[in-house]
Each structure stands twice: as C-alpha cells, then as structure tokens.
C-alpha cells in the first residue's frame, strides 16, 4: 500500500494543508486544515472520500483555522498534543488576536484525542509515528510514516520555524531537529507547514540554521 498526498496552500499565510489518502482507496485524513478550506472541501467531496481524522501539528491559528468547518462537514475527530489542548478554545493562545489585519479571533471546539511522543496512529490502513518536536510551540509534533515526514512549522526547506512566539524556544527547536528529525533516513521527504518540500538529507547538508 502507498500514500497519496495532496497539498493545499490555505489562508493569508499560505499554510500547507495535506490531504493524505491510501492510493486507489477512498479513505483519507487531513493534516493542518488552515483558514479558508473551500478548495480542500471541494476536492474531498469530488472524490467521495471518507475522512477518518484531522491531525494538527500544532494549534497556531493559521494551522487550525479550518478545523471546525472540516469537522462539521465530515464528522471526524481532531488529534492535538495535550500541551496545546486549550489553544483551540483560546484565541489569544492560538495567536489569532495577535494579527487583526490578518484575521479576527478564531476558536473551535476542543480536540477529541491527544497526541504524545512515540504514539502510533493507525489511519487509512497505515501506521504513523508521532514525534514530539517542541520549539516553535510547546506542543508541536511531527508525523512520520515510512519515507514521509510532516514537520509542521519545525523544519522548512533551508529554514526553521520561528521561536519568538509565546511558548517558543530556540534551543528546544534545534534539539528537536537534531535529535529526532535528523535521525530519520536521509531520503525521508519532508512536508513542511509552509513552503516547498525537501528531504532530511538535503537539510542536513544545506540548512544554515541547523547543520548536521
């Protein structure tokens, strides 16, 4: 079995939302449904997909802005690390009150399930490992399955997530990348929260912020 991954760049911050499906089947789950998920919803309905879950790499507003719309449309549960459990219901904590020129306050109902380090999620017939990768935010997680890594706002192509927001910590971010993400196989493809895809091997050789 193999994964098929569609990318949607959503909202004013161009947040990468991923629709992950089992090739040739109609089961899927969503990673980080950002603001304005209309195109995502249309693709799901056009393909007749059954959505098993929404997985949040973290709960900043640009990653969770479409949660309620998607959850109501498909009746699927939300997974989020416990350290950010109350961010979905608190517009100040998820950052949506910080940039009034970008969005109004955003809140949603709490997540149904918690994510934790080492957890094995079984979705669409595949196993996904949860890595707790704090630094950009305290509850940031990365999701791994085979050669696929969804890194949220931890690791980008030749860049890293910002650490100047509440709960961010540069040392934790660098530790997360070096001790967890850089331990993955070099050919592991990285699907970040913003910007183009990359690989672990390329970042180990070329990332100016966190060299191997």
Automatic annotation (TrEMBL):
CDD domains in the cross-refs: metallo-hydrolase-like_MBL-fold
Reaction equation(s) it catalyzes: 3',5'-cyclic CMP + H2O = CMP + H(+); 3',5'-cyclic UMP + H2O = UMP + H(+)
Residues of the Metallo-beta-lactamase domain: 14-194
Keyword Hydrolase set for record: yes
InterPro entries noted in UniProt: MBL_Glyoxalase_II (IPR051453), Metallo-B-lactamas (IPR001279), RibonucZ/Hydroxyglut_hydro (IPR036866)
Cofactor(s) the record lists: Zn(2+)
Keyword Hydrolase: yes
Gene Ontology terms, MF aspect: hydrolase activity; metal ion binding
Keywords linked to the UniProt accession: Hydrolase, Metal-binding, Zinc
Pfam families: Lactamase_B
Annotated function: Counteracts the endogenous Pycsar antiviral defense system. Phosphodiesterase that enables metal-dependent hydrolysis of host cyclic nucleotide Pycsar defense signals such as cCMP and cUMP.
PANTHER family associated with the record: HYDROXYACYLGLUTATHIONE HYDROLASE GLOC
Protein name: Glyoxylase-like metal-dependent hydrolase (Beta-lactamase superfamily II)
């Amino acid at each position: 079995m193999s994964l098929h991954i569609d990318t949607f760049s959503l909202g004013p911050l161009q947040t990468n939302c991923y629709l992950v499906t089992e090739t040739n089947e109609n089961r899927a789950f969503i990673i980080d449904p950002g603001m304005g998920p209309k195109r995502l919803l249309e693709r799901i309905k056009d393909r007749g997909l059954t959505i098993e879950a929404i997985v949040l790499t973290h709960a900043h507003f640009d990653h969770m802005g479409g949660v309620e719309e998607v959850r109501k449309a498909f009746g699927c549960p939300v997974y989020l690390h416990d350290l950010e459990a109350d961010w979905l219901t608190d517009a100040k904590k998820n950052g949506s009150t910080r940039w009034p020129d970008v969005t109004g306050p955003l809140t949603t109902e709490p997540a149904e399930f918690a994510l934790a380090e080492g957890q094995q999620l079984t979705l669409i017939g595949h196993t996904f490992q949860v890595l707790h990768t704090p630094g950009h935010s305290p509850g940031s997680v990365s999701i791994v399955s085979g050669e696929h890594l969804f890194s949220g706002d931890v690791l980008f192509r030749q860049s890293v997530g910002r650490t100047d927001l509440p709960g961010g910590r540069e040392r934790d971010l660098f530790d997360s990348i070096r001790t967890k993400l850089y331990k993955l196989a070099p050919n592991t493809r990285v699907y970040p929260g913003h910007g183009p895809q990359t690989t672990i091997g390329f970042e180990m050789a070329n990332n100016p912020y966190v060299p191997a």
